[in-house]
């Protein structure tokens, strides 16, 4: 019987609504990581690394072959947004858009390191500058008016 086999790694990045610093405590951050890993697992995705900054999140995970990118991100954002509201952040919301970047198997360790280094990285780099750099690196054309919300 023929099989369809795939292993596609993605680096997903999206911010909180209007870049508001909602994710402030380490306790909420750790619980959010666990929650999102569970959501992704139920969708058939393996999470390699995750880090939620106060105003945005990085997720390195596999893309299941049975779901679209848009579905994966939408289900992750919708579910985690509801969960964060239940955890006592009533005005929480994620931005409408997202960035997703393909990662080669040989690049996994570098992206893991990058995600784990987020606290130090953002001590000197703003989220918008970081995202602009990702967009340049992946040669993605964009209109600045529509990237942030």
**How many strand units?**
4
* CATH topology type: Alpha-Beta Plaits
State the strand order across the main sheet: 2-3-1-4
- In the CATH hierarchy, the architecture is 2-Layer Sandwich
- Strand fraction: 15-25%
What does this molecule look like?
With 149 residues, the protein is an alpha+beta fold. The chain has one domain (8-142): Alpha-Beta Plaits, CATH 3.30.70. 42% of the residues lie in helices and 18% in strands. The chain is built from 6 helices and 4 strands; from the N terminus they run βαββαβαααα. The protein has helices at 26-42, 69-86, 108-116, 118-121, 127-137, 144-147, and strands at residues 8-15, 47-52, 56-63, 99-103. Strands 2-3-1-4 form a 4-stranded antiparallel beta sheet, sandwiched between helices. Strand 2 (47-52) and strand 3 form a beta hairpin. Helix 1 (26-42) crosses helix 2. It is globular. It starts with 7 loop residues before the first strand and ends with a helix. The mean pLDDT is 95.
């Amino acid at each position: 019987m023929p099989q369809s086999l795939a292993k596609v790694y993605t680096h997903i990045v999206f911010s909180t609504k209007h870049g508001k610093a909602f994710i402030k405590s380490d306790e909420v951050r750790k619980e959010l990581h666990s929650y999102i890993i569970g959501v992704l697992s139920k969708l058939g995705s393996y999470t390699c690394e995750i880090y939620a900054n106060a105003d945005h999140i990085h997720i390195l995970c596999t893309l299941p072959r049975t779901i679209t990118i848009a579905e994966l991100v939408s289900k992750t954002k919708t579910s985690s947004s509801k969960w964060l509201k239940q955890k006592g952040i009533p005005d929480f919301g994620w931005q409408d858009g997202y960035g997703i970047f393909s990662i080669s198997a040989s690049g996994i360790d570098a992206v893991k390191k990058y995600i784990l280094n987020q606290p130090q990285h953002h001590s000197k780099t703003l989220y918008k500058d970081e995202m602009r750099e990702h967009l340049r690196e992946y040669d993605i054309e964009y209109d600045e008016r529509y990237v942030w919300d």
